[in-house]
Automatic annotation (TrEMBL):
<feature type="domain" description="DUF4190">
    <location>
        <begin position="72"/>
        <end position="138"/>
    </location>
</feature>
<keyword id="KW-1133">Transmembrane helix</keyword>
<keyword id="KW-0472">Membrane</keyword>
<dbReference type="InterPro" id="IPR025241">
    <property type="entry name" value="DUF4190"/>
</dbReference>
<feature type="transmembrane region" description="Helical">
    <location>
        <begin position="123"/>
        <end position="146"/>
    </location>
</feature>
<feature type="region of interest" description="Disordered">
    <location>
        <begin position="1"/>
        <end position="31"/>
    </location>
</feature>
<feature type="compositionally biased region" description="Pro residues">
    <location>
        <begin position="14"/>
        <end position="30"/>
    </location>
</feature>
<feature type="transmembrane region" description="Helical">
    <location>
        <begin position="75"/>
        <end position="103"/>
    </location>
</feature>
<keyword id="KW-0812">Transmembrane</keyword>
<protein>
    <submittedName>
        <fullName>DUF4190 domain-containing protein</fullName>
    </submittedName>
</protein>
<dbReference type="Pfam" id="PF13828">
    <property type="entry name" value="DUF4190"/>
</dbReference>
Length: 170
């Protein structure tokens, strides 16, 4: 039996290098290296900006930077807007406003450290949360200070029973 690691004996239509000669490079497609013509095959990975330490070759390409974490600033904005909109429900407006300010401050700190890209949204969350708190407190003060002018003229005295439907007995 022959060598199992030897090249196959079948003839190919492509020219083969003579033993001991260097192998020529593979052919290049018309669109450039690494691309197959007419859209066949898989798309090649090409990083937008190569990493400074990555010199090509074998191994894994560099890890791309992490996506910004904009959740805190966005949450602060949404809660602040809700607090300003539902100020008539003053307990809910005050709670939502406080949460909007807290999440807005956390979002601003993340943006200052470079972990987020939405410092404007976080600032708007702080402002809208503060406005929601102020409107909620103003609504509470309005409900406490303004007297009840229902116009029924009831002074609160009496026995607590309605006398408008009293019928005389015969």
């Amino acid at each position: 039996m022959g060598n199992p690691f030897a090249a196959p004996a079948a003839r190919t239509p492509y020219p083969q290098p003579a033993p001991g000669e260097p192998v020529p490079p593979p052919p290049i497609a018309p669109d450039g290296p690494g691309r197959l013509p007419y859209g066949y095959g898989y798309a090649q990975y090409a990083p937008a900006q190569p990493h400074a330490a990555y010199q090509g070759g074998y191994g894994w390409p560099p890890v791309p930077p992490l996506a910004p974490s904009n959740g805190m600033g966005t949450a602060g904005l949404v809660l602040g807007i809700l607090a300003a909109v539902v100020f008539c429900l003053w307990p809910l407006a005050i709670v939502l406003g406080i949460l909007g300010v807290i999440f807005g401050v956390i979002g601003r700190r993340k943006a200052r450290r470079g972990e987020a890209t939405n410092p404007g949204q976080a600032l708007a969350g702080i402002i809208c949360g503060a406005v929601g708190i102020a409107l909620g407190i103003a609504m509470l003060v309005f409900l406490v200070v303004v007297p009840d002018d229902s116009g029924d003229g009831d002074s609160g005295g009496g026995d607590g029973f309605s006398t408008s439907l009293v019928m005389e007995q015969q």
